[in-house]
Amino acid sequence: MKSVVRSIVTLAALGLAGTVPCGVAGAAQAPPTAEKAPAAPARTAHGIVQMIGESLGEVTLTADQETIVEALGARVEPLQAVVDEAENALLLALADQIHAGHIDRAALEPQIAAYVSAREALAPELRDALDKLHDALDHEQRADLADALECRVHDVRRAIVSGEKTDELAMKLGLDDKQKASVNEILQNLQPGLETEREALHHAIEAFRDETFGLEKILPAADVPERARHRAEGIIDATVSISDILTPAQREQLAERLRQAAMARSDAAEDQPPAAMPGLSPKSADLVGEAADALWAAGFRRGPLGGVRGGVVVTGGAGRYYRGRVGAYPYAAGWGYGYY
Question: Which positions of the chain have pLDDT values less than 70?
Fold first, then answer.
């Protein structure tokens, strides 16, 4: 597995001062003998794979179990990374079209098809990995993983439905009261679909606690392509609706927010402090967390499926990427939780 991730991102850097994310363990101090980190951190898959990986960081595994889970992670992480790339590609294509002054849905079909294809490729491998993970864990370990994952899903939902981020976007775009009302209505139209998916994910996590795990009954594999296309088209629909109520100058700002939403989960975002990301002003960087060199802690090993072992659990992680994306462009939350 990859050897290093950005480790401790403080609550203040995440804009969560005064709150404690559900299910996130406190970060331990780096041991003096911790092994030195390599100069270039390896790429991290985001989405549900990272959420599961970080949740596994809160489960005590035997050496044999770690070996099994490492192998599962090696299978699914590259496929999740392709999904991440496809999401970003569509956001960037939308940004380019808004910058050009016209959204051509037909021209976006290659990006939509690539996203659907990436979801289809990941789905069977992720399902098989979850079945094998379920078999490898005992009852208490499954319960611990389910508890940790439920809390991360809750944190993601909180980031998605936060009206604060919508108000922030309205301020950045310089919307008047009528425009703000229209944007809020567009966001509300996304909520039923997101809540439906969150409910299905909740049932899947609860099923994982049982001795038998029947994901197919909750989330049929045959529905993956349709769900993926629906998500992609929902992002486009919301963006078109917003773009239609904006002035040319505001559309340019919207295009920039889309680029930042893609950057929030790009390789550049993983490898650099947000303030150093190309195209992000210091103010914009706040949206994805003010990470400075001091917040890089060498020597923490990445664990199975992207979790963190050695006594440290990442306090940012999947939530950080979702919050960064939602902060830059809340409608990017229409990707949903990425569970198949």
Answer: 1-45, 159-160, 162, 265-322, 333-340
In terms of pTM, does the model score above 0.85? Answer: no
35 in a structural domain: no
Q: Give the pLDDT of residue 290.
A: 35
Q: 279: helix, coil or strand?
A: coil
Which ranges constitute the DSSP H helices of 222-336?
224-244, 248-263, 267-271, 282-285, 317-328
Residue 9 in domain: no
252: tokens are 């340019």
Asked whether 299 and 37 are in contact (CB, 8 A), the reply is yes
Q: Report the number of distinct structural domains present in the chain.
A: 1
**Angle, CA of 234, 240 and 241, to the nearest 5°:** 90
**DSSP character string of 185-199:** HHHHHHHHHHHHHHH
Domain assignment of residue 139, given as a range: 47-335
Cα separation, 333 vs 335, in Å, equals 5
